[in-house]
Design a protein that fits this description.
This protein is α/β, with parallel strands linked by helices. 38% of the residues lie in helices and 22% in strands. It has ten helices and 16 strands. The strands form five sheets. Strands 4-3-5-16-6 form a five-stranded mixed β-sheet. The chain has a five-stranded mixed β-sheet with strand order 12-9-13-8-14. Strands 1-2 form a two-stranded antiparallel ribbon. α1 crosses α4. The radius of gyration is 24 Å and the shape is elongated.
Length: 307
């Protein structure tokens, strides 16, 4: 393969993975016009249209998707090989794409960004906050962070936190007006702030358990959201009762008296947060370094992989 042909294919993969000529051009160190010309040369050489382009989006055609599916793993393997060679020489580099819940981004990733960058200045972190449980393989992410019960199939998982205790909360003003619920069934007479599951659009059923008795409540109220910050803010403002596992975000309001816990003896424990990645490809040295940072571990010997 000639160098120009390799450059064309590399440019094509970059555009598909970033769904943007501008972002791909920035990644490749090219101008958008030069990148567009490179893609046109590739399409002319193959005699096929590879990308559908509008003013707002870029997506592969059926032919382009077929080509991407075949060649993208080869480029990833080459990038991993280069990254491993750099790691063996004492340098960890490359781009690391992470798909994460907002809670994990706020509590686990954000406080460690500076430390990770100082230790690995040649690694570019591409962090996408996504509470919609996106498919990290289809989204071409190196790893995702989710609650353990929501992990995708065929994944290798690394635990980041202990299991999480759910907590139902409401503002003092709300409870003064509506009364304190004593059992989960009482929630049918209360305003509840619910969570919508993005994968199918359904509202989440609240689960409770006490002395081996487990109940699920179809909560109803004035607000349904897919973002925990909105739900907690609504509870603080007296709209109703919220049920969450984002304890760090809730505990501040509890300590300041803005929220009060309810049904504490009925609250259940959910699996904690896990970082996970596909078992169909080896984790890069950059991913191994990122996991070490999130777990506050000492950097591993160069070249070892995340487990």
């Amino acid at each position: 393969m000639r160098g120009s042909e390799f450059a064309e294919l590399k440019a094509f993969v970059a555009v598909v993975e970033r769904a943007s000529f501008a972002r791909a051009a920035e990644h490749l160190g090219l101008s958008p016009s030069a990148l567009s010309q490179t893609i046109r040369q590739l399409e002319d050489r193959l005699g096929a249209r590879l990308l559908n382009r509008t003013t707002r989006s870029v997506a592969p055609t059926a032919t382009g998707d077929q080509l991407y599916t075949r060649i993208a793993p080869l480029f990833r393997d080459m990038a991993d090989a280069v990254a491993e060679a750099s790691a063996a020489a004492g340098q960890t580099s490359g781009t690391l794409r992470i798909n994460t819940l907002a809670m994990a981004a706020r509590q686990i990733i954000a406080p460690r960004l500076g430390r990770f960058h100082r230790a690995h200045p040649d690694v570019v972190l591409d962090i996408v906050v996504d509470d919609g449980l996106s498919d990290i393989v289809a989204g071409r992410f190196d790893a995702g962070i989710r609650v353990g019960a929501r992990l995708e199939k065929d994944m290798i998982a690394v635990r980041l936190t202990p299991d999480l205790k759910m907590i139902a909360v409401a503002s003092p003003d709300y409870l003064k007006e509506r009364g304190m619920p004593r059992a989960p069934a009482d929630l049918h007479h209360h305003a509840c702030i619910n969570w919508r599951l993005q994968q199918d659009g359904s509202a989440w059923h609240w689960a409770f358990e006490k002395k081996g008795k487990r109940l699920e409540i179809a909560a109803e109220g004035p607000l349904v959201t897919n973002h925990s910050d909105i739900g907690i803010a609504a509870a603080v403002q007296g709209l109703g009762i919220s049920y969450a596992f984002d304890r760090e975000h809730v505990d501040e309001h509890l300590s300041q008296g803005r929220l009060v816990q309810v049904l504490g003896d009925w609250s259940i424990t959910r699996p904690g947060l896990f970082l996970y990645y596909s078992n169909r490809r080896h984790p890069s040295p950059a991913l191994g370094a990122f996991v070490d940072c999130l777990l506050d571990r000492e950097p591993r010997a160069e070249g070892r992989r995340a487990r």
